[in-house]
Structures are given as C-alpha cells and as structure tokens.
C-alpha cells in the first residue's frame, strides 16, 4: 500500500517494540485499526458523494434537445430598423 519492503516493516516493528511497552502493543494495534477503518469509511463516503454528483451532472447534461434553448433559432421576430437618422 505504501511501498514498504520487508526490511522497512521489520525495522518499524523493532522501533515500536522499543518505544512502546510490549503489553500496550495490542491496544495500540486495535486503535490504529479503528482509526484506519474510520478513515476508509470517510473516504468511501466522499467517493460515493462524488459519484452521485457526477451522475447528477450527467443527468442534467442529457436533457431533451427540445427543452434546451437553441441559439440558432430566433426566439422572436425582430423588426427591421434602419440605422439612418430619420429626418423630421
């Protein structure tokens, strides 16, 4: 997952044994597992929210073409006006 090799894992275990009381290691591992599980649940929730948001965007983009305003069609007739000044 993080690219640890066997030597890094063994070194990490030795450091943990030296720094933490051996009786406290099971409680430490449980706590690390709970934190990891909590983080993974949060990440899955974020992924689901992004997937839902992406689906809503796709749904919004796939309107029927009749409902979308077509800029090529003129929505109303314009009166022809002259740009020349009218003399009174």
From TrEMBL:
It is a single-pass membrane protein. It is found in: Membrane. It comes from Oceanispirochaeta crateris. It comes from the Bacteria. The chain crosses the membrane at residues 6-22. InterPro entries: TatA/B/E. The lineage of its organism: Bacteria, Pseudomonadati, Spirochaetota, Spirochaetia, Spirochaetales. Coiled coil: none annotated. Its main location: membrane. This is Twin-arginine translocase subunit TatB. Keywords: Membrane, Protein transport, Translocation, Transmembrane, Transmembrane helix, Transport.
